[in-house]
Amino acid sequence: MERLRRRLAAEGRWRKATLEELEKDRCASAADEAMAKIACLRRLTWRSTQMQSCN
């Protein structure tokens, strides 16, 4: 019975650590996506200002 408790506790810790890592990866992916969108918007804004200065 004690061995079962230890095993379940270890699995719980493993599951918690795994979920934390998945959350970190998800946050990192969301941050990467946001930075890519910001870079795209900056390029579009820069192009727009360049075109206006030519007129």
Kindly list the characteristics that best describe this protein.
mainly alpha, 55 residues, rod-shaped
Structure description:
The protein is mainly α and 55 residues long. The chain has one helix at 2-54. The chain has one domain (1-55). The mean pLDDT is 90. Helices cover 96% and strands 0% of the residues. The chain has 1 helix and no strands. It is rod-shaped and about 80 Å long.
Q: What layout of secondary structure does this protein have?
A:
Elements: H1 2-54
In short:
Its main location: membrane. This protein has 55 residues and is mostly helical.
Residue share in β-strands? under 5%
Distance between the termini: 81 Å
Shape category: rod-shaped
Tell me the major beta sheet. Answer: none
Question: Multimeric state of these chains?
Answer: single chain
Give the fraction of residues assigned to helices: over 70%
**Total number of β-strand segments?**
0
Low-confidence spans: none
Number of helices, counting only DSSP H or I runs of 4 residues or more:
1
Task: Give me the Rg, rounded.
Answer: 24 Å
Count the domains: 1
Determine the mean pLDDT.
90
